[in-house]
Amino acid sequence: MQIDSIDFQILQLLNKNARIQWKEIGEKIHMTGQAVGNRIKKMEDNGIIKAYSIVVDELKMGFSFTAFVFFFMNAYMHDDLLKFIATRNEISEAHRVSGDACYLLKVTVHSQEVLNHLLNDLLKYGNYQLYLSIKEVKKHYNTSLMSDE
Question: Locate the HTH asnC-type domain: which residues?
Answer without folding.
Answer: 3-64
